[in-house]
């Protein structure tokens, strides 16, 4: 039996990858814009809730939990499906940035756990102490999130275009969206579509079931506009500044 060296095997793997369509990473920008916008606005929305206004606190708390879970699911998908492939297929220089991203995920997860803890405490009474603690936790989370998404766009997305196939990238998105309750999917898509590139939206929906492809371009924006009116007082909240 012929014995193949490690470099030969790696070379064969890269040749095989080059023969198939590679990742279209534009949808990641859309996801990042959603995160930066919603988390950038969140602290002020929390601080604006009057003490004891449990009804308003409940609405805002639901929103914080939703966007926190979107980030958590997004990062869980990268941890499971993206980092291992990049480490396996890339060079030593890839390892440094991937390990930095993994460290960011750990910091974001710690902030996420603090946000979830504080939002639960605040929801019940709408008290000032937990309201301000939640707003502070959201601000800390947002600082790390903005830094992380910027570095990911600068360093990781070009690597994904080089080393990750289109099918693998689609699997990553499916894994991330699996953590979103089905009844929340129109809202989640509407959030992403608010600042999304129409061509990218069309590409993302091309992988969705037929009914979603036909209805989501109309339903998603309407659902988010109605939601934004209740949450922000306007159907057109400020766009992402980061």
Number of strands: 0
Q: Can you count the helices?
A: 9
Distance, first to last CA: 56 Å
Question: Uncertain segments of ≥5 residues (pLDDT<50)?
Answer: none
Share of β-strand residues: under 5%
Q: Give the helix/strand class.
A: mainly alpha
Characteristic terms for this protein:
mainly alpha, 242 residues, 0% strand
General description of the model:
This protein has 242 residues and is mostly helical. 80% of the residues lie in helices and 0% in strands. Helix 3 packs antiparallel against helix 4 and helix 7 (185-193) packs across helix 9 (210-232). The radius of gyration is 20 Å and the shape is globular. The termini are far apart. The model has no long low-confidence stretch (mean pLDDT 91).
SSE topology sketch:
Layout: H1 6-18, H2 26-47, H3 54-89, H4 92-125, H5 128-163, H6 166-177, H7 185-193, H8 198-205, H9 210-232
Brief characterization of the structure:
By secondary structure, the chain is mainly alpha-helical. The chain has helices at about 5-20, 25-45, 55-90, 90-125, 130-165, 165-175, 185-195, 200-205, 210-230.
